[in-house]
User: Which sequence fits this backbone?
């Protein structure tokens, strides 16, 4: 027997779509963040990269540029894939920059610290 769904409000799909103004804003901000997301490999650059990627992740520009997924967006716009991007975000969120700033740690070292 089908469920009674009469309590749902009827809203057209077009009402859920984001406006072109928001799309322009999101894509413009993502373009500004891409150079930071493709920086080098010093500790400070890794943290800057993670911050930029976390903001890109929150903006979700793949909804507007036609790539339709984070995986495809990373492949098209970054020097690395979605897995590595998620690791940069994890490092930025879990490791204190004050603890590792100025040290000669590499990405793999920071991944170990992030897992602790």
Assistant:
């Amino acid at each position: 027997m089908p469920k009674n769904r009469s309590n749902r409000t009827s809203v057209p799909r077009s009402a859920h779509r984001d406006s072109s103004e928001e799309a322009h804003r999101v894509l413009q901000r993502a373009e500004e963040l891409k150079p930071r997301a493709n920086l080098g490999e010093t500790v400070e650059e890794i943290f800057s990269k993670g911050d930029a990627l976390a903001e890109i992740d929150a903006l979700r520009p793949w909804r507007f540029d036609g790539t339709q997924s984070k995986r495809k967006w990373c492949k098209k716009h970054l020097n690395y894939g979605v897995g590595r991007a998620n690791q940069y975000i994890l490092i930025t969120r879990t490791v204190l920059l004050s603890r590792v700033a100025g040290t000669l740690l590499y990405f793999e070292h920071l991944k170990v610290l992030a897992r602790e």
Remarks:
- The radius of gyration is 19 Å.
- The longest helix spans residues 20-37.
